[in-house]
Amino acid sequence: MDTMRDRFISTASQLLDEEPRLAVVLADISADGFAPARRSHPDRVINVGIREQLLVGAGAGMALTGMRPIVHTFASFLVERPFEQVKLDFGHQDVGGILVSAAGSYDWPAGGFTHMAPGDVALLDTLDGWTVHVPGHPDEAEALLREAATGDDRVYVRLSLQENRQARPVSGGSGFSVVREGRRGTVIAVGPMLDNVLAATEGLDVTVLYATTVRPFDAEGVRRAAGAATNADVVVVEPYLAGTSSAAAGEALMDLPHRVLGLGVGRAELRRYGQMEEHLTTHGLDPQGLRERITGFLRP
Q1: Is residue 224 part of a domain?
Q2: pLDDT value at position 300?
């Protein structure tokens, strides 16, 4: 099966044929994959080289002319390094575009800490007006990208090598979906965390919500699930910085007695880079680690 990044390349290449206002801006990453599309659309597939501030600025400049730019590189080079350009060139100028990242929090540990971006969603959360998609399967990534391509807003699509075995129907406007219903609490699984959350909560009397669009946050869906339970406690399991959505979950339940536990990537830098699966386990995001913390939190 192809990866989310593979699917992004094939889908975006096809969209270039279908949508004349669409453009793809690269900073060397995935340039080989887009080579056929660049030959077909040399004026709408632009590789600026390893110049990430220029990458974002060029995309925003295209948006000012009425184009719909898809701006792509690794998450650390798309959100963190050129953050000022994301804030000013897109946000301050109030233009739309699609940022599509790869490599997630620690997908390529051999690349070192420079290629890790567990704080990308939290950083983008400091800005107004961004829709954030975190697909858990290549099919979901394709559906969300196609939906974003037809709009005019600011969208961040976070791709990863981590993925669930099964795709689920997704839409940026549909909110969180109910995967399992229970009475003792609510667990929100974001994107590629769903399979591990389902394994971790097997046999537990909890509701599991699946989130592929985390901004805007589906406050009503969380409130509905928590209100139907015997307590309104919520666990948010995210594939990036732990606690990124805890405040949003708390605000959704502010007039109900509740507790919120945010699980995700810790702040400590893991200097023995190892493999992606080892990072997952070290951060307690494997089924065993999740079950221990979820049961400990929800225990009466």
Answers
A1: yes
A2: 65
- 152 and 51 part of one domain: yes
Tokens of 48: 């600026």
Q: How many domains does the chain have?
A: 2
Angle between helices 138-149 and 4-18 (to 10 degrees): 30
| CA-based nearest residue to 101, from 5, 220, 193 | 5
State pLDDT tens for residues 251-268.
999 989 999 999 999 999
Interval 43-78: pLDDT, tens: 999 999 999 999 999 999 999 999 999 999 999 999
Q: What is the mean pLDDT of residues 233-251?
A: 97
Query: What is the DSSP pairing of strand 213-215 with strand 130-133?
Result: antiparallel
* Residue 48 and residue 117 in one domain: yes
Question: Domain containing 266: what range?
Answer: 177-298
Q: Which CATH number characterizes residue 151's domain?
A: 3.40.50.970
